[in-house]
Specification:
Chain B: This is ATP-binding cassette domain-containing protein. Chain B: It is found in: Cell inner membrane. Chain B: One of its GO terms (molecular function) is ATP binding. The complex is a heterodimer of chains A (322) and B (328). With 322 residues, chain A is an alpha/beta fold. Chain A has two domains: 240 residues, 3-Layer(aba) Sandwich (Rossmann fold); 69 residues, no CATH class. Chain A has 13 helices and twelve strands. In chain A, the strands form two sheets. Chain A has an eight-stranded mixed sheet, sandwiched between helices. Chain A has a four-stranded antiparallel sheet with strand order 2-1-4-5. In chain A, a hairpin with a 2-residue loop joins strand 4 and strand 5. The radius of gyration of chain A is 21 Å and the shape is globular. Chain B has 328 residues and is α/β, with parallel strands linked by helices. Chain B has a domain of 212 residues: P-loop containing nucleotide triphosphate hydrolases (Rossmann fold, 3-Layer(aba) Sandwich), CATH 3.40.50. Helix content of chain B is 32%, strand content 19%. Chain B has eleven helices and ten strands. The longest helix of chain B has 18 residues. Classes of the chains: A alpha/beta (322), B alpha/beta (328). The interface between A and B is large, with 55 and 59 residues.
Chain lengths: 322, 328
């Protein structure tokens, strides 16, 4: 495994008490594979990624272990590897690019720092990298500033910076959410190609189940700070075993149409300063029984590679009983 | 209900809307779709005469909105309302829920003062909120609840035409489904004529009766929802549908970006990205005829079938049936 996260917890002190944003999350990704982390706002998916990169504020209390290529990630190691062996891209490229430097200079910076390339060689390598992310006329565009690029082209520059040093791990946090759908398709296809060429392990954070279906090998579904279901992508869509996953799949309107009202999950996500005692999804779950309200279910394997945190799994039992 | 004829609007050098003609029948849900910068939001605002067109006319229930005095137009606004994307930006943080929903009632003298409170409670119940929440402030609510409040406010004056500009785009998937269901119920129960401006083709398929597809300020295709989704004719409509994720990632993505609307390509605006483009497309702008603006609409190969899989089958459908809440 390139990345192995084991029992990660992240807490923030707020003026209304402690907020446990991530509560015992374990994840793993292998070289050349894409793990999608799916969840809605507040599920803890972005905080998990930021903890991996060492980008959380100093006030965050972090527990558990994060291991990259067999070695635990300490804050020192995170600083040394960030932008080199591990890199991250964000939803809004404009806020992560420096407006005062050209695209080429920003790609070259990573190569100078992590590869010790002299400036001239770093800039030439940067142009080659911009070509690899299919920016037309890369030699000229390398001398332009971020504001001179379209949204899709800026995200390509971000990807070029992230992949310049051939990272072992790429964390992509909603990389195409701000882009138009035709441009999104280009960027996701590009990420797939580059991953195949370099063997980079990718963690793709998204709320879009269509993106997951097309681009992920494995999926972890997060709800209220915990992983509630984990499976290979094809398996998750064919046989979801957590009620939250079932509801989420039914809440997305289908392009093929049909089916009257959408399945909708009643209520809202819990206040993370004061989460429910038992299963955090129980207050919104149509299948909840008294045990669900009293006792928090652990993530238990159903098959070798499919695990769910639900006392009522396998869910076929519910249908047989009904 | 609404007839927009050859309307155009420029902002500086940007031709946001470039000669659009559109009709919406009473009780119909029309979706305007397209990517950022295609002019769909500007078109929505022009249709309500919230901004003045450079040319063209808007008839609402047979009346030329361009000929109304400012005072008459203000009075007409009770019949035409807009719901915005961002429920955080569209509610005044210094107004309680009751004040926000009551404002249009008082402004347009919809009910006597003494009945305002009851009417607000009515509206809140209708959008699925408890009337006791009327004294709270917007910041006390989640995004989904705020959008319900914004919908209650938009519907308070009893409008006949409502335009929703990406009304569910800022919401999480599970909350989005609640608000989509709510909008569908309200459209049906109140007999609303609704224009949905959206980039989310799944939501459009679910709600709309008709669809107009925009690209760089022009409508490139218009037709019934079923026809647009199962037999798209314009190459851009086809590319847009094929780009929606969740279909196996098989289709080759459209090349390049949308050109700048301040300097659109000559001829057919789409020719720079169109794999069927010929010489004529570069010089001659195609008119919207029989629902499509493409010189070669009749000679294109048949569109690829949509390949959205439903791998969960009957088991998943049965499990999901437990999630369908009873209508309020």
């Amino acid at each position: 495994m390139v990345l192995a996260i084991d029992d990660l917890t992240v807490e923030f002190a707020t003026d209304r008490g402690t907020l446990r944003a991530v509560d015992g999350v374990s994840l793993a990704v292998a070289s050349g594979k894409t793990l999608a982390v799916v969840g809605e706002s507040g599920s803890g998916k972005s905080v998990t990624a930021l903890a991996t990169m060492g980008l959380l504020p100093g006030s965050a209390r972090i527990g558990g272990r994060i291991v990259l290529d067999g070695e635990p990630l300490t804050p020192e190691r995170q600083r040394a590897l960030r932008g080199g062996a591990m890199a991250m891209i964000f939803q809004e490229p404009m806020t992560s690019l420096n407006p005062a430097f050209t695209a080429g200079e920003q790609v070259a910076e990573a190569l100078r720092i992590h590869r010790n390339l002299p400036p001239r060689a770093a800039f030439d390598a940067a142009i080659a990298m911009l070509e690899r992310v299919r920016i037309p006329d890369a030699a000229r565009r390398a001398r332009q500033y971020p504001h001179q690029f379209s949204g899709g082209m800026r995200q390509r520059v971000m990807i070029a910076i992230a992949l310049a040093c051939a990272p072992r791990l790429l964390l992509a946090d909603e990389p195409t959410t701000a882009l138009d759908v035709t441009v999104q398709a280009q960027i996701l296809a590009l990420l797939d190609t580059l991953k195949r060429e370099t063997g980079t392990a990718v963690v793709l954070i998204t709320h879009d189940l269509g993106v997951v279906a097309d681009h992920a090998d494995d999926v972890a579904v997060m709800y209220a700070g915990r992983v509630v279901e984990r499976a290979p992508a094809a398996r998750l869509f064919a046989q979801p075993e957590h009620p939250y996953t079932v509801g989420l799949l039914g809440a997305v309107p289908k392009l093929a149409g049909g089916a009257g009202r959408l399945a909708s999950i009643a209520g809202t996500v819990p206040d993370m300063r004061n989460p429910p005692a038992g299963c955090r999804f129980a207050p919104r779950c149509p299948f909840a029984i008294s045990r669900c309200i009293a006792e928090q279910p652990p993530l238990i394997p159903i098959t070798a590679d499919h695990a769910t945190a639900c006392w009522r799994a396998p869910l076929s039992q519910i249908l047989e009983a009904a | 209900m609404l007839a927009v004829t050859d309307i155009a609007k420029r902002f500086g050098t940007v031709r946001a809307v470039d000669g659009v003609t559109l009709n919406v029948a009473q009780g119909q849900v029309l979706a305007i779709v397209g990517e950022s910068g295609c002019g769909k939001s500007t078109l929505g605002r022009l249709a309500l005469r919230l901004i003045e067109p450079d040319r063209g006319t808007i008839h609402f229930q047979g009346e030329d909105l361009g000929k109304l005095s400012p005072r008459a137009l203000r009075a007409r606004r009770r019949d035409m309302q807009l719901i915005f994307q961002d429920p955080f930006g569209s509610l005044d943080p210094r107004m309680t829920v009751e004040q926000a929903v009551a404002e249009p009632l008082i402004l347009h003298n919809i009910v006597p003062r003494a009945q305002v409170r009851d009417r607000v409670a009515d509206m809140l119940t209708r959008v699925g909120l408890r009337p006791e929440l009327a004294t709270r402030w917007p910041h006390e609510f989640s995004g989904g609840q705020r959008q319900r409040i914004a919908i209650a406010r938009a519907l308070a004056s009893g409008p006949k035409l409502v335009i929703g500009d990406e009304p569910v785009s800022a919401l999480d998937v599970s909350v989005q489904a609640q608000v989509v269901n709510l909008l569908q119920d309200l459209i049906r129960d109140l007999g609303l004529t609704f224009i949905l401006i959206s980039h989310d083709l799944g939501v459009v398929r679910h709600i709309a009766d008709r669809v107009a597809v925009m690209y760089l300020g022009r409508i490139v295709e218009e037709g019934s929802t079923a026809a647009i989704f199962t037999a798209p004719r314009h190459p851009y409509t086809r590319a847009l549908l094929a780009a929606v994720p969740g279909q196996g990632g098989a289709a080759a993505p459209l090349e390049g970006d949308v050109p700048s609307p301040s300097n659109p390509p000559p001829g057919c605006h789409f020719h720079t990205r169109c794999r069927f483009a010929q010489l004529r497309c570069r010089v001659e702008s195609p008119a919207l005829e029989a629902g499509v603006a493409c010189h070669f609409a009749d000679s294109l190969p048949p569109p690829a079938a949509m390949a959205e899989a439903e791998p969960g089958g009957a088991r998943l459908a049965q499990l999901q049936s437990f999630f369908k809440e009873a209508r309020p």
